[in-house]
Amino acid sequence: IELTADAGAQQVAGTKVYIDSKKVAVTNAPGYILNRDVFDRSLASEAVRSGARLMMCTTAADRTENSVLASQNGSEMEINCRIIIGADGPTSTVGGWIGQRNSKFVKAIQSTVPLSNPLQYCEIYFEPEFNAGYGWVFPKGDVANVGIGVVSTDSNLSELLDRFLERLGREGKISEGEVCSTAGLIPVGGSLPTLVENVMLVGDAAGQTHPISGAGIPQAVVCGKLAGRSAARAVLEEDMSQVTVYEREWTKLYGSNLDHACRKRETMEAEWNGRNFTELIRRSWIGFKEYYRTP
Description:
Blueprint: E1 8-19, E2 22-34, H1 36-49, E3 58-63, E4 67-72, E5 75-80, E6 84-86, H2 93-97, E7 105-114, E8 121-126, E9 134-140, E10 143-150, H3 157-170, E11 180-187, E12 195-196, E13 199-201, H4 217-236, H5 244-271, H6 277-284
Parallel strand pairs: 1-8, 6-13
Antiparallel strand pairs: 1-2, 3-4, 4-5, 7-10, 7-11, 8-9, 9-10, 12-13
């Protein structure tokens, strides 16, 4: 994938993990924090350069046997197609057409705020009030994405984030002010069937998001490429059996890891209010060796 230079916001050295307000681990794993909006535009531009047609302000409404019914700026249209790929997010419209839609989510909210000093590590925070989820600080130069993700809770999500931001402010990590904020759903129930008739699902729409970390960009990019390649071969070779290659390929890459993470999430949710919180997090978080032991 050809990305513009500004798609990467910052290189990081790894991750620091805090449990119950105490730093318990540092993982050295170099990587990059993305400017997601720039990254998404880069992907769209690359697709157009490769021959895709980008249709803005267009909503897919329904499907027929050989077409998709859509609406663009109030005008109805019918798009003929042999194969449909649904990569339309956690509450996928396309997934709904084939009875495959995520039902289990983490609710997430995030603010971009100024940093008091540059950070070289991402920071992950596990607190009992972050029900079966966690808080994060992802540095992006002079600012950071600060957020929390939790399963259903009696607490107000915005209030939880406000308390987290206040804490980070008291610790001198962030300064006052908010650049922007976002909120959404992260599917954590595991993968769905990704091929039904002539419809394929990819990324969040397919439940390919990691049920513990919530990470989904790598799977979405890789699985999107696999799905597109299988679909193209099926049409070009006039052999619809080629679409089945997608499900086999992505499952081989990610299936066992996602299944393991699903089992870990079930245990984490069941034991969240147990007596040994630290031990539970060590068994549940991908940065600890205990996570990789069989449940």
